[in-house]
Amino acid sequence: MQSISEAFGLALALVLSGDADLIEIVLLSLRVSLTATVVACLIGLPIGALVAIARFRGRNAVLIVMNALMGLPPVVVGLLVYLYLSRSGPLGFLGLLYTPTAMIIAQTILIAPIVAALSRQVLEDLHAEYADQFRSLCLTRVQTIQALLWDARYSLLTVGLAGFGRAVAEVGAVIIVGGNIDHLTRVMTTAIALETSKGDLALALALGIILLVIALCVNGAVQSVRMTAVKQAYV
Amino acid sequence: MSDAVAMPHSLTAPSEDRAGPLSLDVRDIVLRFGETTVLDGLSFALGASGCTMVMGANGSGKSMLLKLLHGLMEPSAGHISWGGYAPQEVTARQALVFQKPVLLRRTVAANIDFVLKTRGKDRARVTALLDHVGLTQKADQPARLLSGGEAQRLALARALATDPEVLFLDEPTASLDPASVLAIERSVSDARDRGVRIIFVTHDVGQARRMADDVVFLHRGRVAEHSPSTEFFAGPRSSAARDYLNGRIVV
Ligand SMILES: Nc1ncnc2c1ncn2[C@@H]1O[C@H](COP(=O)(O)OP(=O)(O)OP(=O)(O)O)[C@@H](O)[C@H]1O
Ligand SMILES: [Mg+2]
Description:
The structure holds two protein chains of two kinds. Chain A is mainly alpha-helical. Chain A has helices at about 5-15, 20-55, 60-70, 75-85, 100-135, 140-150, 155-170, 170-180, 190-200, 200-230. In chain B, the strands form two sheets. Chain B has a six-stranded mixed beta sheet, sandwiched between helices. Chain B is an alpha/beta fold. Adenosine-5'-triphosphate (ATP) binds next to strand 2 and helix 2 of chain B.
């Protein structure tokens, strides 16, 4: 076990030297979480849009479920995906357990509800403003959804960034379905958990620093998207 | 008389069948929001052409009436018939310029293009429509950064882009400078002369005098008076309209 200052020194050296293992882990993290974010948006945005403009029986129940799913505990999602993908599970024949694909699936399940619930709120507010005008123009439901998605583009971008932020920082689900296998499924959060328990604080800290920088960048991106939107009066 | 009742809803005319503007028959419509009654047995009839001004005090239900006639809302009771069609059946043949213009979060030109595209019109008309309302210089600006008067002009251009048979205008010149008021009035008059049925809400007595063929005056949820413009401004029959005009003219 190294002292804290020693660990910090080694961590900085790793980051600055562009250590190959470190880069591999970071790139895999980004690949998994970005893919999960894109898939979650493809699923979550249409659902959010539909629920935002449709009026049907049981809509309130759907809203409650959507909001509740936002708080899904990652370990529970990991466990469920594990059960489905494990050799004896219903999807075991796919052989996906302990692959990046399994991690993408778990993270998608984790953040699709976030994208759906947040975008539902954004699109419903916008629709309240546009509804009379759109009815006057006799838009079809598809035209309405397309126009809402486009006009809410800045807000939806921040929704996507929020989803990505949650995915890249979560550890519970990916450690269960990915297994933290070196060179295969080791991502930043699982590596931090493992290296810390092994006592290799340098690598853990180096990854921690990068994760923090990514979190900062995501927040910076959200902020600049908001500012652009305000400047263009697109909020 | 009660065409609206006799006409089954399945007999919807195909959208291409445009027989020209339709006359309007409004019978005993009531509009309630919970305990409040906004319109209380309102009736009137309009011919198929011309420019009708709708006047009345703030809160007398003018904006709600336009939404009902355009098919955006259902009355609590009563019948509205456009030559036998229910309002929802002819919404696509009409356009409404809202009291508060609802502009898309896009550029000025894109706001017009959106309407032309979704309604299957010739998208090359954007330039001419922008020019028509004097917004050519602003074409590439975000629409929501327009001034109040510019926004109203864009809303009018967007309404004209749909080639409506009936054009509803809800105080479209309320925040405009005198030159823009005249420009809007000219383009509305042009539309009227091309056969577009105009139904125009205003508080501007001078404007009503300039534009109106007839005036519908709302008071206490009913039509207090419906007279040809000349008669209305020479001396309204109803005391409500007289008070309204006096208040406007004296102050
Ligand atoms: N959703 C609603 N719930 C309750 N009351 C409503 C609702 N919508 C409109 N009203 C009421 O209906 C009345 C008529 O409103 P409307 O907007 O038609 O007035 P108006 O004649 O257009 O007034 P103005 O000259 O100020 O534009 C108002 O008193 C308003 O408060
Ligand atoms: Mg009004």
